[in-house]
């Protein structure tokens, strides 16, 4: 699982992507792919943002960039749920998007 369970959510995401996106690819779930790539972009943006802040080379308005990146998380979760064509996944992603 990882160090005290810190990598559990990443392992679950990787399992879902491999299980549903790579084994049975369909052309109708392009919206889900957009959400997945947006979620990867958000995660890497967090890494860059915190690395720049930690090194002291970040700009003075890093809080604004943090809010911008955080707002993209809701859009990515909504598009993943909407692109899955499953009402339970859609409700779960809506709940996650509103709580983030």
From TrEMBL:
Membrane topology type: Multi-pass membrane protein
Membrane-crossing residue ranges in chain numbering: 30-56, 62-85
Pfam families: NADHdh
Subcellular localization: Membrane
Keywords, sorted A to Z: Membrane, Mitochondrion, Transmembrane, Transmembrane helix
GO cellular component: membrane
InterPro entries xref list: NADH_UbQ_OxRdtase_su1/FPO (IPR001694)
Protein name: NADH dehydrogenase subunit 1
Annotated gene: ND1
């Amino acid at each position: 699982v990882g160090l005290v369970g810190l990598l559990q959510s990443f392992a679950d995401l990787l399992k879902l992507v491999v299980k549903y996106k790579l084994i049975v690819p369909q052309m109708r779930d392009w919206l889900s792919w957009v959400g997945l790539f947006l979620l990867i972009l958000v995660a890497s943006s967090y890494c860059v943002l915190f690395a720049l802040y930690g090194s002291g080379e970040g700009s003075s308005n890093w809080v604004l960039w943090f809010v911008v990146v955080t707002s993209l998380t809701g859009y990515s979760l909504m598009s993943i749920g909407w692109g899955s064509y499953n009402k339970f996944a859609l409700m779960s992603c809506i709940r996650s998007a509103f709580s983030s």
